[in-house]
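Field reference: sequence -> structure
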Amino acid sequence: CLLKSPVTLTDSFPAASAVSAVGGMSLDDEALARRMQEEFDEEVRAKEARERFECPLCFETTRLDHGVELDCRHRVCRGCFSGYLQVKITEKRVTEEELCCPMPDCKGEVTVPQLEGVLRGTPLWDRFLATRAELWRPSQPSGASGRGQAELLCECPSLACGERFLVPQSVAEARCPKCARSFCCRCRSRHPGQTCEAYATGVASTRSADQELEQLIAQNRWQRCPKCGAVSERETGCNYMTCFSEKCRGKVCFCYLCGVELSTIEHYTHFPHGLFENACVKVDRRDDEAMPKASWGTAGWWSAVARDVTSYVTG
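Structure field:
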């Protein structure tokens, strides 16, 4: 008989690494494909992370194309930026100094193209343009050697006209080019031969409407701003008031109870019994039944708080 050499399994079959695993793909190829897929997925996640950012105002993560980057390099989401602009434009605080970056301690300007990119085609954009035109004032020549003559922007006092035009600053009385009405360039009244102060004194002594207004203010416990004299009524919130008139523009605060101007520090020190008690360091009106009680927690109050916080943060 013939003797045959023994046959081992390793001699008859290829190595395990070369055995077909799935669909004709070796184990080495399968591992390589899996690793390549993982690297691809990691690259996709890294790319998505680079295209997203966290808004520093609402702390939400959003896509870069859903945000707005200002010239100061601060980037915020479009929702927060739109809300910020709505507060500013609604209150007519749209000068270059007032309309700045919403981040604390940053005074970077919000440019008109940035505003237009977010607001164009909306009523808020129209209001911004109208307010900017309303606040515009002619630039004055600088120095004695400056060319040209200083000009004054006048607005016709007629409610049916309201035309705005420029006149030399030295002119005392202007004539409207639209309706031909003559009036004083400074007080918008007509008082030939009198100064504005003398005319105002004479009118105040004879005008019963002013007396009726003062009676109405006292009756309703309203308060005047100590800086500009604008009348204010506290609907909700505490007794620390902020004047948003055209003259003060949110930069003047005062006590609704005594009417004195307050600093930021006096927001709390001026009211020893609390912000919502009708008593301050000067007067105690807690027994005055006609004085409305300070309130908090309403939707209007929270809106006022948000507005005040925005004003404080942005200066």
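Note: Residues 218 and 290 are 10 Å apart (CA to CA).
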